[in-house]
Amino acid sequence: MPQSLSKVNVHIVFSTKYNRNLIKEEIREELHSYIVGVLSKLGSYTYEIFANPDHIHILSTLPRTITTAELISKIKTSSSKWIKNKGINNFYWQGGYGIFSVSASKVDIVKRYILNQLQHHRKKSFKGELRRFFKEYKIEYDERYVWE
User: Fold this and answer.
1) Which residue has the higher pLDDT, 136 or 12?
2) How far is residue 84's CA from residue 77's CA, in Å, rounded to a whole number?
3) Could you tell me if 17 and 92 are in contact, meaning their C-beta atoms sit under 8 angstroms apart?
4) pTM here?
5) Which of 25, 32, 68, 121 is spaced 20 to 30 Å from 115 by Cα?
6) How many CB atoms lie within 10 A of CB 125?
7) Residue 43 and residue 25: Cα distance in Å, rounded?
8) What's the distance, CA 106 to chain centroid?
9) Where are the domains of the chain?
10) What does the alpha-carbon distance between residue 103 and residue 120 come to, in Å, rounded to a whole number?
11) Strands of 9-15's sheet, edge to edge?
12) How far apart are CA 39 and CA 27, in angstroms?
């Protein structure tokens, strides 16, 4: 049987429900480790991850065995339960997400971008950031349905 090979790099972004600042610095590193573990079990390699108080960025590979929607659902469902077990009972992720392809030549640029989130968000809001991604990737969207 021929071997099936795939390497699709993706930049995943989604927020907490209503963009609430619920991800505390005290749990950030542990949350990163937890999500990297979830992704690893799904067959995804994580290049970089950073959880802001109100949203998260993940640069990883897309497993060839599951759909994008399944990948995001598994990340959100399991990490939401994990966060609630840490005492943040009112925690929910937003219903939607953004996922953007990243060429192999741009992986290091996106890694640096994700690592620079704290400084980046001193100047630009999450909504402004996501609008820029939509523009850059030529994604049509309706403001009424992007933010919840």
Assistant:
1) 12
2) 11
3) yes
4) 0.93
5) 68
6) 11
7) 28
8) 17
9) 9-146
10) 22
11) 46-51, 55-61, 9-15, 98-102
12) 18
**Rounded distance between C-alpha atoms, residue 116 and residue 100, angstroms:** 18
Q: Two tokens at 99?
A: 């996922």
pLDDT of residue 1: 53
Question: Locate tokens 């990490």: which residue?
Answer: 79
Locus of tokens 């969207």: 141
The residue type at 113:
Y
Query: Under DSSP, is residue 18 helix (H, G, I), strand (E, B) or coil?
Result: helix
From CA 135, how far away is CA 90, in angstroms rounded? 32
Structure tokens at 8: 């699709």
Dihedral angle over CA of 26, 30, 35, 38, nearest 10: -150
Contacts made by residues 40-44, CB under 8 angstroms, sequence distance 24+: 42/66, 42/71, 42/74, 44/71
Q: Would you state the CATH architecture of domain 9-146? A: 2-Layer Sandwich (3.30)
